[in-house]
Amino acid sequence: MTPVRPGNEPSSALPHIVLVDKKKQFSSPTLPIAAINRLAAVFKSIPWYRDRWSHRTFRAALLGTLRTDAPAGLVVLGPGMPFEPPPPFTEAFEPIELGAGDERLKVLSGDTPTRQELLTRRTLWVVLPGAALLAIAGLIAAFIRARAQIQAMMPIFIMLAIGVALVASAVRWVARWRGRWYLLPSSIAVIDRREKPPLKLHTRFNTCAIIRYVNAGKTVVLALELLSEPSKRRMRAVTQREAVSVLAAWQCPHPPPELDELTELPA
User: Across the strands, what pairs with 219?
Assistant: First the structure.
């Protein structure tokens, strides 16, 4: 567990969570109504044909609210969230890398499966047995009818499998090279080798966190966005488990670590 330094005891002040529904209505159980109305007014003033979420004016309004009305932190949840905001995770914890499938995320977000995990399990239980039976039947039939042709095609199948594995490894390597995100108490550390210095620490005190669905070509993905200045943002796709864990950790009463405490993060 991360030690608590003198003067950095847990704080009772929690970040404000703002909910935005499909009708562009803003609400929050804790943020002052005047601040909510200002954010909603700025959001609705942006033309419909523009991306309101990424518009510089709305980003500036969020950061202004963070500075003046939400010094303990500000989180915005977009429409259609498949989960409720979790309670704060109140214990200190070691860095957890997002995107690595770390089981420690369940410590932050609970053991209850998310909708995404339940859907994946159901799909696997239905698809895998059926696909396996079809594949076995097809192989048997093909083997009986065309044994020679299958034997000739086996090297091609093997090369294709190797190629797919290499491409997947390359994609994973490029993604990690471009940026690795580590979840910490009240913060997220990002290591990006394209920047100098490569290590940046985003805390709930200097960064607005946004979780929303984003169009990505032919699909829609759940994304986490870190906004620290109007002209610059960081964004990455996250699973529902990761999103809930981020919310729990972002509300952690323990202060974020100092940069010099993160020198051992794997780069």
Answer: 216
Output the six-digit token pair for 170: 């390359």
- Is the bond preceding 32 in cis, omega lying within 30 degrees of 0? no
Using N-to-C axis directions, what is the helix angle for 240-250 and 115-145, rounded to 10°?
160
Q: The pTM is what?
A: 0.77
C-beta of residue 61 within 8 angstroms of C-beta of residue 220: no
Residues 179-228 have pLDDT tens digits of 899 999 999 999 988 888 889 999 999 999 999 999 887 889 999 999 99
C-alpha 84 chain-centroid distance: 15
Whether 201 and 189 have beta carbons less than 8 Å apart is answered as yes
In contact, 236 and 243? CB cutoff 8 Å: no
Residues 6 or more apart whose CB falls under 8 angstroms from that of 265 comprise 95, 182, 189, 191, 199
